[in-house]
């Protein structure tokens, strides 16, 4: 199966009076950031310390990518940093380069393949599951989460999508993307590195500072507001879909087993998260902890969707490690549930397939022509 994916920047023309309101700084060389006190002599020339308003969040001047999903699954609009090198420069200036990386800030083939597969699965559940709940681990830009929210909205069923990542900037971008799609956004991050995140409005797809909103006249366009945690309201034309954001460290047992999320999701999605065996163990444990497991699991079987680059150099066998750890954690949970007299439906590997995703410029790799193979697995709960 081969899928050609078109990624384009939003280059729509803006009225002249909106230009000054875009979150883009003029070049100011060697200007120190008031939070990290670092100078920017080595940072890109168009940014002051690679983040606007000194809030350590690089964003697009023209704010979103249009991601055409495989299998005619529509287009997801994604807010993301203008350049991952800008994000890397920011981390270096904040002395966080060894703790954080900028991989969350760009679209990846596995996320695009998972987005289409997630939408397919939700369509299969149409009529069987009322208000499905989907959780994405290590969401980055949240392309699968946004695709799931779109599928739930268009099906008129409504539902909940929880996008999890340990990087607040990533969650902020997902919140803005969800606002573009007019979903109900809950728990958008308010600050990062002790800096308040921008309060923004989306007005006819124009990204403007909140205090400037009155200068934009678009009376026929509904406004969606995500202001550092302020909820958005969906329009009446779509079923209500709630997009929740959670800062999650999957190595933290308390966070993984948080009461609000434990055993409460019909689908858990994980894409491009298998960087090392320790990650395979932690992610698989989190999947088991958050997936429904008893009689409340849907008739088709609550499940885990894994998407991973097929040829990840130096990481051969890590998907098998994930499988082994997933089965082990699931068996442990089953023993605990059955010991207390509860019902438990065990996970089974239902299917595995490979799809090819073609990334167009500027995300294509000249070494492979932009074609990337992605391996997907669907695990589902079944009665014994």
Automatic annotation (TrEMBL):
Signal peptide: none annotated. It comes from the Eukaryota. Residues 1-13 have a biased composition (Polar residues). Residues 1-20 are annotated as: Disordered. This is Calmodulin-lysine N-methyltransferase.
